[in-house]
Batch of 2 targets.
Target 1
Amino acid sequence: MRILSGMQPSGIAHLGNYLGAMRQHIERTKNEQNECFYFLANYHALTTVKDKKKLEEMTLNLAMDYIALGIDNDNTAFFKQSDVPEHTELCWIFNCITHMGFLERAHAWKDAKEKGKKEMSAGLFIYPILQAADILIYKPNLVPVGQDQKQHIEMSRDIAEKFNQTWGETFPLPEPLIEKSVAVVPGTDGEKMSKSYGNTIEMFAEEKVLKSQVMTIKTDSTPLESPKNPDTCNVFKLYKLLATESEIKLMRENYLKGGYGYGHAKTTLFEKILEYFQDAREKRKKLENNKNYVEEVLKKGALKARKVAEQTIKEVREKCGL
Ligand code: ADP
Ligand code: TRP
């Protein structure tokens, strides 16, 4: 099974990114039957990040997050998108068969327009085409992503079909893989956890910062001694995504019996996050002092990825008459 996914280095990784996307990326690398391609989508990040230092830093940080979580396996190519320029070549060819009307229907573009975003660049407009190129160039079977990326995968399928109709059968249609149990991870305010809403919990933050993020989770005003409803509480919702069956059962009982405050629940959640990410946090600290190693992993990954990307581009050029 060939598996592919990408993540934009456009901010600090948070529990929503991990539970919605990164966790399944890493899980898939553990099956030796799988051949995995995972990349840091820095060309995509360029649509929003224009500060050179910031982009470099965020790319390296996200690379360290992934490596600390265990992505670097023999059956995996982990790389920077910009180290495989074939992605942008294929994007150009797809540009030539994609209608403007099709792109105008993209949620992300419509949202940006409605919100009156300042910079409506051509790059932002063709964002889904570059994503289609990222995916199709490796002809993967499965693309594990969060729920919000579903439309982009559907658009990639449409673009693949258009190419196949125009120049002959070339690209198999990729399937999205969305972990239903964690479709949307709530942030500290109960809305979708997202960098752009300032409601994130960052699993690699310093302990103090992490604790203060957990402590700001919004709860209702039920008094300490009263029974509480776990199913409407954001603390419990997050705990459920990380804890074991028996730990979840215990917290549920504590909520229902009363005399258990939200402060208790938050402390338990904070400790759970520390425990869950303990190994990764330690590994991440060591990587901070060994950035050359991180660069090497990415270079090695790019070499692997390029072998496949070059083959596809050769085939595409021939089919198109280039
Ligand atoms: P953000 O909203 O913080 O900018 P991104 O859009 O960069 O995050 O998302 C990167 C990946 O993480 C995507 O695959 C997305 O589906 C997933 N993801 C982000 N936030 C969440 C969330 N709150 N719940 C589930 N998945 C999420
Ligand atoms: N658009 C994706 C996101 O914001 C990142 C991405 C770029 C991607 N290219 C991809 C995801 C290819 C999956 C496949 O999360």
Target 2
Amino acid sequence: MTSWPADVGICALELIVPSQYVDQAELESHDGVPPGKYTIGLGQSKMGFCTDREDINSLCMTVVSKLMERHKVDFCNIGRLEVGTETIVDKSKSVKSVLMQLFTDSGNYDVEGVDTTNACYGGTSALFNAVSWVESSAWDGRYALVVAGDIAVYAKGNARPTGGAGAIAMLIGPNAPLVFDRGVRATYMAHAYDFYKPDLSSEYPTVDGKLSIQCYLNALDNCYQLYCKKASKVFQNNSTKYKVELRHFDAVLFHSPYCKLVQKSLARLVLNDYVNVSEGEVASRFPGLEQFKDVKLEETYFDRDVEKAFMTFSKDDFEKKTKASLLIASQVGNMYTPSLYGGLVSLLASWPLADLSGKRVGLFSYGSGLASSMFSLRVTGDGPALQKLVSGVSGVTEMLGARKAVSPAQFSEMMELREKNHHQAPYTPRSSPDTLFPGTWYLDHVDDKHRRFYKRTAS
Ligand code: ACO
């Protein structure tokens, strides 16, 4: 390569979700919790889940196959493939290596990259790696492909309604319709036991729910403050000062463990802006919030007065900048690594093309343990590349509508089946593949050496 590739970003996107869901209002009644706890308190309407016919390998195989077919990308034209996941079926063999089965007919084995794991952040790390490869001296002119997928399941109890599942594939290259801003990424990493998976014989995590929320909000504060600082420098025009605040973004997307936390997070950005203005500006910029002038961010994670006041104040911004991005999160639940990028797909599928053109989108990625980053992208003009990318994800609403509702009792039985047979070998899944969407890869059987074999439903 003779020159630095321009406008590196996302050239195409493909998202898949399970073909079955459980209704959250029905789940409230089945679980015997007060009506509204999951639907209003957490802001969730449906939760997607996988039967024992799907695992992390099959989800990722499906999403890659669909992206390559829809966008007619030749497998020979992929030079790097990165997978971000926290759903582990084999401690040493990567999901990426399983995906190489799809490359066999092309004869292309020259594909860098393996898996990246840190809770819901692995997809973002994979994405950053892919962007770095395209921008590096190692780049050979081909696309990078990033896959983020997970099956999010919790033991019975208060965390169970925050499950979900899905996978996303993102084609990364130069001259992209969604271009990542350079020099502005802000990262916050620390050690915390808020959510982790120490029991390797179980799919379920060990969770400290309250701590995980505190860690998430603290990470958001740190990333946002740093992003604003870095971006203010990058975006200043010669000597004209430019202060990055919420108004810098046309849309802001968040990792979504549940939708209510995302609405609180948008309000949290306004709180960050509030603590950053001078005392003299408070009354004009934040009318009605003067009583919080001595507030300290680290003392407000669970301060209901502050939370309520800033949520009310930021309601219009939430409606304008974030609500559309929650389409998939509210209907599928926490997909873990694909969650943030499901927000991007939701936005692209919800806003008219003309409204997307030229807009700046902020993204906040969080993975327990903990790893987090805030970064941004710019949507280019509404040329053919953007039109193609958007038309590729526009069927998402139809896909959500085509899913089958399953009763909470059946959902619970399915969770028990997964629980009982997790890591069993040999094993042949009990669920019928007939309920899966067309073109879905599924687990046919696991042999006595724990080797997994897959088949695909007709397209
Ligand atoms: N009607 C309306 N709202 C209600 C009702 C009702 N009948 N009952 C309760 N609520 C509200 C509560 O007031 C609360 O809202 P608030 O937080 O705004 O006050 C909300 O519903 C949740 O209720 P809680 O009793 O606080 O929550 P619970 O103890 O059941 O657990 C939690 C919630 C912690 C999110 C749990 O589901 C969990 O541990 N999930 C997994 C961890 C997680 O998602 N963490 C987030 C970041 S890390 C990650 O992405 C994995």
